[in-house]
Design a protein that fits this description.
241 residues, alpha/beta, Rossmann fold, 7-stranded parallel beta sheet, 7 strands, 16% strand, globular
Length: 241
């Protein structure tokens, strides 16, 4: 797919890889609707990236807000060609210590938010006379379980299953579905993780975004439906070995 003139939706666009995704898409000629809850951060990104970035203050856990926005913004003559379901968060702790609120927050953001937006965009993509692409951002935590991240594991394993089913469901409609499984990226994600600090050996957001662009620009009948990304050496270089 050529990205020139394409319309993309990126959730979780106000920081981290969402910001990098938006920047790289715009550099390749796309217009980006960047969704996030923090309007101040979104406006700062608009100031940085220009009018090709349309800031949309949105909580992806609110289905009615998503539904109304999609119906008011898009139609058969204005279809999103790319959907990047990136919004997500991790709240960590032993299973008995994870609060019900934290559990529900992860499920609603990491899983329900993906479903809410996807179910609104897919009918538009089906009616488009051409190929479109949905990319769901999971995590290596969607492939491997580890202690103290059971809630995050559960949601990302679910995104994996949702993505595989969606890929098989939509492939004959000309809609590509890719699930990305990144390892540690130098973003604010680890702010809520005790004892984990970002460091230079983590993957950089722009490098992950370059991989996204490569996936999107593959030929129409070529699909990378799953991809894992990891730092070669994940150890903090400032820590003694």
């Amino acid at each position: 797919m050529s990205l020139e003139g394409k319309i993309a939706i990126v959730t979780g666009a106000s920081s981290g890889i969402g910001h990098s995704f938006s920047k790289k898409l715009i550099e390749n000629g796309a217009k980006v609707y960047g969704l996030a809850r923090n309007n101040k951060k979104l406006q700062a990104i608009h100031d940085d990236l220009g009018d090709s970035f349309i800031a949309v203050q949105m909580d992806v856990t609110r289905h009615s807000d998503i539904e109304n926005w999609v119906k008011n913004e898009f139609n058969e003559d204005k279809t999103p060609h790319i959907l990047i379901n990136n919004a997500g968060l991790g709240l960590f702790g032993n299973v008995e210590d994870i609060s019900l609120n934290d559990w529900h927050t992860m499920v609603n953001t990491n899983l329900n938010g993906v479903y809410y937006l996807t179910r609104q965009i897919v009918p538009l993509m089906k009616n488009y006379d051409g190929h479109t692409h949905i990319v769901n951002i999971a995590s290596v935590a969607g492939l491997i379980g580890n202690p103290q991240i059971s809630g995050y594991n559960a949601t990302k394993f679910a995104v994996r299953g949702f993505s595989e089913a969606l890929f098989k469901e939509l492939r004959y409609d000309g809609i590509k579905v890719t699930c990305m499984y990144p390892g540690s990226i130098a973003t604010s994600f680890f702010d809520n993780a005790d004892g984990v600090d970002t460091h230079s050996n983590m993957m950089q957001p722009d490098d992950v975004a370059d991989t996204l662009v490569h996936i999107l620009k593959t030929p129409d009948n070529f699909l990378i439906n799953e991809i894992m990304l990891r730092p070669l050496n994940p150890k903090n270089p400032d820590e003694s070995v």
